[in-house]
UniProtKB/TrEMBL annotation:
Pfam families the UniProt entry points to: ATP-synt_C
Organism: Sediminicurvatus halobius
Lineage: Bacteria, Pseudomonadati, Pseudomonadota, Gammaproteobacteria, Chromatiales
Key words of the record: ATP synthesis, Cell membrane, CF(0), Hydrogen ion transport, Ion transport, Lipid-binding, Membrane, Transmembrane, Transmembrane helix, Transport
Domain of life, per lineage: Bacteria
Gene symbol of the encoding locus: atpE
Subcellular location: Cell membrane
Bilayer topology annotation: Multi-pass membrane protein
Protein name in the entry: ATP synthase subunit c
Length: 87
């Protein structure tokens, strides 16, 4: 019984770290992406439309990475495969 509680406790810590790093990485990524977009638009205003399209594509990919992390954390939270190894 103690092993199950320990696995659940470490899983909860891991889930918290996944959420924290997903949020941190996405925040840093969007900050850099927005800053570089504004720099590029200020240097060459005539290609702002092209830069904006590419920025939104990269923003979607950046969000997808965070969503994958959240999905993996949900898997660990609701269907923990580590508990199956104990039983």
């Amino acid at each position: 019984m103690e092993a199950i509680a320990q696995v659940q406790a470490f899983t909860a810590i891991g889930i918290g770290l996944i959420f924290a790093f997903a949020a941190l990485g996405t925040g840093i990524g969007f900050g850099l992406l927005g800053g570089k977009f504004l720099e590029g638009a200020a240097r060459q205003p005539e290609v702002t439309g092209l830069l904006q399209v590419r920025m939104f594509i990269v923003a979607g990919l950046l969000d997808a990475l965070a969503i994958i992390g959240v999905a993996f954390a949900a898997l660990l939270m609701f269907a923990n495969p580590l508990l199956a190894a104990l039983g």
